[in-house]
Specification:
Length: about 350
C-alpha cells in the first residue's frame, strides 16, 4: 500500500525530547515500512525515517527561534501534500483539522488521527461542517465532546517492543514524567510523595506558556526534601528513569486523550497510579498494570498497595495491547476499510 503520513512540524519525527504526536507518527511509520508498505513522511527536514521523507521545513519549528507563525509553514506543507497526493493510496494526517477544506476538494482517500483534547466549544461547528471527514480517536473517552464527527475507529498508541527494557525489581522512588502544567497536576504528585514518605523524581518540560504556573505554584514546592526536579529528558534517559521507579504517578486533572507515559512505564514493568480521568480507565486495568484513584487519600493508599502488583503483568499488558506492531495493524485495518468504501459498486451481471 502507498501511504503518506503527514506530521506536525513543531517537532522533528521522532522528536529530540518532548513530543508525543511526532513520536507516535515515527513508530507508526517505521512499523509500516517494516511491514513492506511504501510510506512517505511529510515532516521537518531534521526528521529521521526509513520512509521517503518530503521535508517541509529546514528544522522543527520549536527549535527555530526565527519562527513566529507556525501555521504559515503548515499551509506550505499542505500545498506539498496536494502536489504529491496522486502518488498515494491513502493519506494519514496528524495535524488536527487544517487540511479538511483541501481534502474536501481532492478526490483522495484520507484519514485523520486526532491527538489532542476536543472539549473546546469552537470545535463543534467545525466538525458539524466537515462531518464527512473520517477521523480516528486515540481513546473512546476522547470522542465524548464531538459525537457528530465521523469516527471510523479508535486506535491506541503503541511503542516498539524493544524500546524500553523490562526490569523485574521495583525501584525506591516515585516518578512524574511529562510536562509541567496545571492539568498534569505535578502539585498533586508532590503531595502524594510527601504523605507517602517516598522520594519523587520529576522529569518534566516547562513550556513558555506554563512558565508563570511553574514559577508561582510548582517552584516553591520543589523545596520539599521529598522532591528532586530533573527537567526534560530524552528516550534513553527515560528508559532508566521509568524502569528504575517504584511507580509512575499520573495525577491528571483533565480529559487526557491517551497518556503515552502510562504505556512507557508499563513497557518497563513499572505500574501506574492514575486519576480516573479521560483515557485512564481504558489504558489502566485496575489491579493489573496499575491502580486508578479518585482522591489524594486513595492515591497515598495506592502507593502502599502498588507493591502487590506484578511488574511482569504490567509488561504483558503492554506487549498485548500497546506495541507499535499492534497499532500499525489496527491502522492498516482502518486504511483498508476506507479504501473499500471508496471502491465503485460492481454492476450486476
Amino acid at each position: 500500500m502507498r501511504i503518506a503520513q503527514v506530521a506536525p512540524l513543531h517537532e522533528s519525527v521522532p522528536p529530540k525530547l518532548y513530543g508525543g504526536t511526532e513520536r507516535v507518527v515515527h513508530y507508526l511509520t517505521e512499523e509500516l515500512v517494516k511491514m513492506g508498505h511504501e510510506v512517505t513522511l511529510f515532516a521537518s527536514k531534521d526528521s529521521q525515517t526509513s520512509a521517503r521523507l518530503i521535508p517541509c521545513t529546514e528544522r522543527s519549528l520549536r527549535l527555530d527561534p526565527t519562527v513566529k507563525d507556525p501555521l504559515a509553514h503548515h499551509i506550505i506543507m499542505l500545498e506539498k501534500v496536494a502536489r504529491y497526493a496522486h502518488q498515494f493510496d491513502i493519506i494519514h494526517f496528524h495535524i488536527d483539522y487544517i487540511h479538511f477544506p483541501l481534502m474536501r476538494r481532492l478526490n483522495i482517500s484520507h484519514v485523520t488521527t486526532l491527538h489532542g483534547r476536543l472539549d473546546i466549544p469552537d470545535l463543534k461547528p467545525l466538525y458539524q461542517e466537515f462531518n464527512e471527514a473520517p477521523v480516528v480517536s486515540i481513546s473512546n473517552a476522547q470522542r465524548g465532546p464531538l459525537p457528530m464527527a465521523r469516527w471510523v475507529a479508535t486506535v491506541y498508541h503503541g511503542l516498539p517492543e524493544d524500546l524500553y527494557r523490562f526490569r523485574e525489581k521495583p525501584g525506591k522512588y516515585l516518578a512524574f514524567l511529562g510536562r509541567i502544567s496545571p492539568e498534569k497536576r505535578p502539585d498533586r504528585a508532590i503531595k502524594i510523595a510527601e504523605r507517602a514518605g517516598m522520594k519523587l523524581l520529576i522529569a518534566a518540560k516547562v513550556d513558555q506558556a506554563d512558565r508563570a504556573y511553574f514559577e508561582a505554584v510548582i517552584k516553591p514546592l520543589l523545596k520539599s526534601p521529598w522532591v528532586e526536579f530533573i527537567g526534560e529528558i530524552n528516550d534513553r534517559e527515560k528508559d532508566e528513569f521509568l524502569g528504575n521507579a517504584y511507580a509512575l504517578l499520573f495525577p491528571i486533572d483533565w480529559p487526557e486523550p491517551f497518556g503515552l507515559v502510562m504505556i512507557e512505564a508499563n513497557a518497563c514493568g513499572t505500574p501506574v497510579i492514575a486519576w480516573r480521568c479521560g483515557s485512564v480507565p481504558e489504558i489502566i486495568e485496575h489491579g493489573v498494570n496499575g491502580l486508578i484513584v479518585e482522591s489524594l487519600d486513595e492515591a497515598v493508599k495506592a502507593v502502599e498497595k502498588v507493591s502487590q502488583l506484578s511488574r511482569q503483568k504490567c509488561r504483558e499488558v503492554f506487549e498485548k495491547r500497546f506495541t507499535s506492531k499492534v497499532m500499525a495493524k489496527n491502522y492498516l485495518a482502518v486504511y483498508e476499510s476506507i479504501l473499500e468504501q471508496k471502491k465503485p459498486l460492481l454492476k450486476a451481471a
